[in-house]
Structures are given as structure tokens and as C-alpha cells.
Amino acid sequence: MADLQLYNYEQNSLYIRLIFTNAGYEESMDNKFEAIYRENARYVYNVAIGMLRNKTEAEDIMQNVFIKLFDNYSAFRGDSTIRTYLYRMTVNKCLDLFRLRKIRESKLEKIEIPEEKNHAAGNELYSLLEKLDPDLKAPVLLSEIGGFSYREIGEILGINLGTVKSRIHRGMNKLRDIAAKEASI
Amino acid sequence: MNCEDTRELLYDYLKNEISTSEISDVESHLKRCESCESELAHIKGISSIIRASMEDPHESVFINISRSIKPAAARISLNWLKPVLAFAIVMFVAIGVYFYTIPNKTEIAEVPEAISENYAVVENSYAEPEENEDSSYYNDNSYVTGSNYAGGYTPVSYIIGQ
Prior knowledge:
The complex is a heterodimer.
Chain A: E1 3-9, E2 13-19, H1 24-52, H2 55-71, H3 79-108, H4 124-129, H5 134-144, H6 150-157, H7 161-184
Antiparallel strand pairs in A: 1-2
Helix pairs in contact in A: 1-2, 1-3, 1-5, 2-3, 3-5, 3-6, 5-6, 5-7, 6-7
Chain B: H1 3-14, H2 20-32, H3 34-52, H4 59-77, H5 81-101, H6 113-118, E1 119-123, H7 137-140, E2 142-144, E3 157-161
Antiparallel strand pairs in B: 1-3, 2-3
């Protein structure tokens, strides 16, 4: 059923919206989306920060991921697929950004790039994760922050169970070594 | 189970990713091995550092997301118009082309006065000449079409010499 809405958006512009669904659809969609955001944002954000060590980039990635989720919302069946999608997108976007950084660094070679580190000084997590390879970082963060099982991590990262296990072991061993070194200094 | 085997399974043990028999093996080893027990404490410590470092995203992120998706929702709701508009444009162009290219069926070429005085204009003379007629006159006659002849619709005219 057609429903013509006029509303003031941001108190400045007047939008005309012609919606061919029932009037309550959009509101319920907004509520559902907000519930998904509230439930997952903190974890998605912290996985992104853990990967990138940069709050601004982590926020950008999170924003893109949730907007994409909203665009493709109708394709999902159940909360588990939404969670998997959110983390997969986040990790993939972080890995893309790592690749871009590498390309940029290789092009600029010895020119030092001032990396924005706008995280809290002395945050132990950042200093622990700083030297960890992104391939090892992702499964560790998904396990620790996302609370995913090894099987779910395999689905998110597109790798098999054995690879998940070995990457987590290598990642945790390295983190333990880094932590031990820092404790001894 | 020795220390090396146990340490391999410590993180899996914490995450409950090992079988029940492996759990009992690890636990029995931990009871009698202080070194592995402290290794487990290290791993727990790293886990707690990661979890304790978690932060909440700034509320502005959600506001930005909401602003981005609301105009998009308005655009999506009008998507049904696209095929209708495309069809209307195609029809408009097709009708325009049809009326522009088709000639006026009833228009007949005007015969200049000088010709019409000396020649008789016979239209639709598709019929074969009668056998007893002298057909030689066809050889000298001109075949004339209208000056604005544009295809098969204009009647063919023969100008027969007198």
C-alpha cells in the first residue's frame, strides 16, 4: 500500500518519501538494525582496532560494514549469519587496508609515513598486538573478542579447522613471548 | 601426557575445543605440573588483557550510519519507477522514429507544366499492354517517379509520349 511521507530531516531539508510497504515496516527495520548494531558494534569495533591499532580507521571500517549490512539485510536468515557476515567483512576490510599500507610503504620506500596512533597511550593490547602478523591476529581476536568457536572462525576467514588451530597457537605463543619480554624489561 | 603435548592443548582447553578425554588428560597433568600450570596462567593473562582493553565505539559512529542509510532507504523505495520510466522512454522514441520516417501515403508528385502539356500521366499502369498494341513506345518513354518518392507507397507513374 502506498504511503506518502513528508518529514523534516535534520531540521533543514524536506524529503518526500513514497513507500510502497506498510507504514510500520521502516520503523521496525530501524529498530531491528539498531538492535543488531548495539549487540555487535563493540566487538566488531574492537576486532578492527586490534587489527589496525587505529581508532579512526576502525570507526570508518565499522561504519562501512554496518551500512553494507543494512543494504543487504533482506538476504540474511538468522542472527548467526549476520554475525558471521559482520566479522568477515570487518576482517577482510582490515586485511585490505594492511595490503594498501604495504603498497604505500613499498612505493614510498624509505620515506617515513607518520602513522596515526590515536589510541590510548600505554594500552597493553596495542603493544601486544603490534608485532603480530595480521593472519595470526585475526583468528586470535575473533576467538578472544568475538567469542567464536574454531569452526566459526574458519567460516569467517575462509580457512579450514586445522589452519585455524595452528594460527591461533602460533599467535598465542607469539603474544606470550612478547608479554614475557615486556615483563622482563 | 607430557608437558609439550599439554601446552599444545592449553589454549584449546581454555576455549573448550578439545574432547572430554583430552580435557581429563590435561587436567590430570596440570595437577602435577607447576610449569604447565603457570603457562596456563600466562595464556589466561593474555586473554584477560585483550578483553580488558575493549572499548566502546563513539556514539557518533551510529549517528553517521543512521544518516547514511536513511536517504538510501528513500531511494530504494522508488526503485519500481525505473523500469516504468525506461519503458516509457523507449516507447516515446520508437513512436517518434515511426512518424518521422514514414512518408505521406497520399502525396503524388506534381508534374511540371511543361511536361504535362506534352505527356499524359497514367497512374497505376502495372497492367501489361494489350498484345495488339505496338509496344515499341515503351522504349522511348521515360520512367518517372515523384520528386518526393520515398518507397513503395508512391504509385508508379508512366509518362507516355503522344
